[in-house]
Amino acid sequence: MTQRADQTRPGDGPARAYDGPGASSAVRGINPRITAQISYSIDSTIPGEWHLRIIRSAIPAGRVTGFQTALLDDDVIFLTADDVSDLNTFGCQIADQVVLTREPKFVGDAIAAVVAPTARDARVAASLVEVDYEAVPSVFGEMDAIAPGAQLVHAKHYTSESDSAYFDMRPQDGTNVCHRFRIRTPALQGRDEPEVVPHLDDPDDALADAFADADVIVDEVFHTPAAAHVPMEPHATNAQWVDGRLEVTTGTQTPFNMRQDLAHIFGLAAEDVRVVVPFMGGAFGAKTFIRTEAITALAARKAGRPVRCVLDRDEVFNEVTRHPSTVRIKLGAKRDGTFVAKRIWAYVNTGAYADCGPGVAQKMGYAGVGPYRFDHVAVDSYCIYTNLPPGGAFRGYGAMQSIWAAERVVDMMADKLGIDAVELRRQNLLHEGDTFCTGEVMHDARFEELLDDAAAAVGWEKDGDRRGKGVVVILKGMQTPSKAEARIELLPDGRYEVQAATADIGQGAGEMLTRLAAEYLKVEVDQVVVCAPDTDRVPYDTRTTSSRSTHMMSRALADAARDLQVHGTIGHGYVSNDGGLDPDTGQGIASSHWHQGSASAELEVDDETGIISLSTLYACSYAGKVINKHGAELQNEGSMILGLGTALFEELQYTEGQMTNPNLSDYNIASALDVASIRHRVMEVPGGEVHGLGETAVPPVPPAIGNAVATFGYDVRDLPMTPERVLAARLGDTFQSPTGEDPQ
Amino acid sequence: MTWHLPTSVDDVVRTRAERPEAPIVAGGTFLGILVRQGLVEADEWISLQRVTELTRMHSAGDLSVGAMVTHRRLELDDTVRTIWPGVAAAFKAVASPRVRNRATMGGVLADADYASDPPSMLVASNAVAEIASVRGTRRVPVEDLIIGHYSTSMEEDELITRVVVPRPTGAAVYRKLRTRSQEDRPASSVAAVVHGETVRVVVGAVSDRPYHFADVCSQWRPGDLDSAREIGEEYASRIDYIDDNRGSAAYRRHVVGVEVRRALMAVAR
Fold first, then answer.
1. What is the ipTM of this complex?
2. Contacts with A724 from chain B: Cβ below 8 Å
3. CATH no. of B172-267
4. Cis peptide before A481 (omega within 30 of 0)
5. What is the mean pLDDT of residues B26-41?
6. Which among A332, A364, A735 has a CA at the least distance from the CA of A586?
7. Are B2-165 and B172-267 equal in CATH topology?
8. Block mean pLDDT (10 aa), chain A, length 744
9. What is the full DSSP assignment across A419-470?
10. What local confidence, expressed as pLDDT, does residue A160 receive?
11. Is pLDDT of B76 > 90?
């Protein structure tokens, strides 16, 4: 059983191991992460297991016509698409994937696998297999892929309501659009419109009248690249079949979705699949839904023994990425600054498979509307197949991409109107009781406090000198609908075991559950133990994503504690948040509670080299009530560090669909040396409810920096803001982008 | 896998002469990456970890740096910081402390990686490498040692034993331009060292090897902004630039002119 970690820092008091049954005690006062006392997914092994290596496509699109395997040793087990004929297709929102494919759709797609007694044997065996291909034309950029007549990545669209994260899909036949999401506020509904707008300048906009009352319009296009999650621990899975049951131990944020999808793939009852989730060394969205689990389970079935799969670093880079995007924003305002209307077109590059791209596209759509009032809003989000590696969940979940564009556009509007950028925001903010574009009425709205706090952090004075300063305010939704269950069991020794499927990714879920249970049960924290997620032992939870766990699980746990007091030894708790949006009008409940945040930056730009020097990078996230102050601060800091890398460094590059920088030398993330300017606040209010804050501070960071850079005349549209992009944005220099192609 | 652990330079060069396929490992920060990425494979390896004579450093007269002296020692040594501040700065600019604690003087030259910090400063400082083999010892200016991408003028059986940096007579400046993380390698690396009335400007990390143009440097008028600008522009125009994740060739051409000018103005202060 996995030992859970403590978030406590030396000096904060003694650290505890809150420990699954059988865990050894942690060294007191020292973080068990540092002393290597945590057993991660990658440390889990099963005696007698063999090792899996995946053989990956070297072409971005085509057919596998044959394998040369003559050099393989006799004991090596070789798997191909022939071995998956009895398996069902899968995909958390669209069932468009097979476990091994004959028709690879990106460089890195799994086309075969070898299983051998040692990891080294498997690696050698994989290198001895030669593959024959027949290539077909491919398409990589989202705007190329949505263009009329573009090569189709999938010959037809798939739908399936049995998938673990399904909602109403709107695939567009004859195009690469696997889901189209729209928001239309009431006056804009029911118009005769084309289903797909495949270009960035649409002269025949059927909704142009929404801007009739606007004196000034800003209409601009922005771009974000693919990016890597870079969890320190790679994907690691062990699979074993026991008496017809499948047991998988794996690093996943989605244990119950995993169980459902594996059961579907192998034609099993959900109860015949067990998913156990040890502590993870980071995930950031990379460990959601089926990754290495199905192929490892298949290999274990064929080998008749346990099988282990651990990805290499370059494979982690290729496994799933952040969606590249092109976002066009059209914002209209009256001369006095009152916002009138907003249109958003979000083109979301989901790569070869949908994964949760439809959900990302939807969230990208409404997050870009922002915490502002409008008479009219229309959003069109397109989730588009291409021949790049699949995009998936990524800390910020689509919000970053559209907020980058939307909050830059607010500053452009302020410039055009000659109104202070903070005042323009304040003038249009959503307040308690205002209606969002989805029809939801805002509650617990804190946008003005957040805006003021971020502005104060960089010494923003109304109509003062704003050179080198940028301020941003955002909203971001939480997974809705979703469910959380928790169970608390009184153990024979008098301690209480918390049984919950919230996975500890490194965010301190175990700490959160321990503290909350102790509070609700009115006992000391050392009387509470937490069971690692195990689908045989813990009750259902939607997943550990979307910054929902503390908000949802805290209430399920409170419910369980109340139930325990009634029933004596076992207490069950259950909460759900209902809602969802109509895919054609975007009306409904986008989010049962809103993540609200702000950020600001103060910086200099070297006008000869384009290098940005940050003196302050600040973010404020609304938390309501904080459970674990230190853990909350770490989450806020971590989000800002990711936002900083996103803003300045991070970009996956491709040449003909082949990733050219899948390593940590050629792909830079922010290091300890880059974060000295970071300051932040977790905003609490007396009597506030528990809000999630695992990613709130990611999306506002890039536009806060971008807005500050723009005050020097550098109008950067593409992330990351590399020095040469900064220079080119003012000087119009034709510095070509670094190796790799422009996705547009 | 077999590790040979010689304890003297004589042992090393003899072992290497007998096993020309066995890589020599100094700090392992570069070879370690190549091995992890599957780019280097070998059954036999030669470690320099026990060759204590390679860890010696002396600063009487010229600076004599054994091949196994780490970046971190050069960065922190009081005498190096006082007398050879440009050298200390260039080694301090490399990666992070955990890399600098392992990476060595011999290793960074033998790798001849275009994107390293120290080579441009060593060339600008007129540093000379001492190279041993079973055939004896020879001296090669660092300027003639690194001849292209990951290639040196060394023979297969040769070992860098130490590097000698003359005592400078003027100011030295190292300018590292980072376009991404502060832990990143340079997008351009400009070293300028004043020797009497003349200056040696060397530009690294933008092409296959460090570049020095003596005829351009000879035009220098100390403290004259126009002179510094002209030299910068001349350097910018003479180099054949590479594109990589740290910057395009066009961007590098632009910033080399700026960085050379800034380095020249800094050494003239």
1. 0.94
2. 179, 247-248, 250-251
3. 3.30.390.50
4. yes
5. 91
6. A364
7. no
8. 36 34 38 82 96 98 98 97 96 95 98 97 97 98 97 91 80 97 97 92 85 97 98 98 97 96 97 97 96 98 98 97 98 98 98 97 96 98 98 96 98 97 98 96 95 97 88 93 94 95 90 92 94 94 87 92 92 92 94 93 97 98 91 94 98 97 94 95 91 94 98 96 94 49 37
9. --HHHHHHHHB--TTPBPTTSPBP-S--HHHHHHHHHHHTT--TTS--TTEE
10. 72
11. yes
Hunting for tokens 């080198």 — which residue is that? A468
Q: How open is the CA angle B37-B42-B46, to the nearest 5 degrees?
A: 110
B210-219 pLDDT tens trace: 999 999 999 9
pLDDT at res. A5: 38
- Amino acid (1-letter code) at residue B96: S
Beta strands A612-624 and A307-310 are unpaired
How far the first Cα of chain A sits from its last, in Å, is: 49
CA distance A530 to chain B (A): 36
Q: Give the closest-approach CA distance of B62 to chain A in angstroms.
A: 33
What is the rounded distance in angstroms from the CA atom of residue B216 to the CA atom of residue B156? 35
- Note the pLDDT of residue B197: 87
Does B184 reach chain A within 8 Å, measured CB to CB?
A: yes
Looking at beta carbons, which pairs linking B127-130 to residues 24 or more positions away fall under 8 Å? B127/B163, B127/B164, B127/B165, B127/B166, B128/B163, B128/B164, B129/B160, B129/B162, B129/B163, B129/B164, B130/B160, B130/B161, B130/B162, B130/B163, B130/B164
Q: Pick the closest to residue A381 from A155, A580, A619, A146 (CA basis).
A: A146
pLDDT of amino acid B123? 98
Q: Give B248's contacts in chain A (Cβ within 8 Å).
A: 724, 735-738
pLDDT at residue B196 is higher than 60: yes
How many angstroms separate the CA atoms of A83 and A163, rounded? 22
> CA distances (Å), A271 to each of A165, A264, A536, A540, B141, in order?
19, 11, 8, 12, 72
Tell me if the domain spanning B2-165 has CATH number 3.30.70.1490: no
Name which of B34, B111, B179, B262 to mutate to probe chain A: the one with the most chain A Cβ atoms within 10 A of its Cβ: B179
Amino acid at B142: V
CB atoms within 10 A of CB B55: 16
Q: Write out pLDDT tens, residues B129-181.
A: 999 999 999 999 999 999 999 999 999 999 999 999 999 999 999 999 999 99
Q: How many contacts does A have with B, using Cβ atoms within 8 A?
A: 76
Q: What's the pLDDT at A743? A: 35
Q: Phi-psi category of A463—alpha, beta or left, where left has phi over 0 and alpha has psi -120 to 50?
A: left
Spell A645-671 as b/e; 16+ CB within 10 A means b. bbbbbbbbbbeebbbbbbbeebbbbbb
| Peptide bond between residue A720 and the one before it cis (omega within 30 degrees of 0) | yes
Q: What's the angle, vertex CA A642, arms to CA A638 and CA A648, rounded to 5?
A: 140
d(CA A704, CA A466) in angstroms, rounded, equals: 12
**CA-based nearest residue in chain A for residue B188:** A609
Tokens of A355: 């994964």
Strands (E) in A156-215, as ranges, are 177-184
- Taking contacts as CB-CB distances below 8 angstroms, the residues of chain A near B245 are 653, 661, 666-668, 738-739
Three-state DSSP at B128 gives strand
Q: Do B251 and A611 touch (CB under 8 A)?
A: no
The answer to whether residues A337 and A424 touch, using CB atoms and an 8 Å cutoff, is yes
Sketch the domain layout of chain B as residue ranges. Answer: 2-165, 172-267
Q: Which residue of A has its CA nearest to B254?
A: A609
Mean pLDDT calculated for residue range B68-97: 97
At B229, list the tokens: 């600008």
pLDDT for the residue numbered A26: 35
Rounded-to-integer distance, Cα A223 and Cα B245, Å: 18
Record: contact A667-B245, CB cut-off 8 A: yes
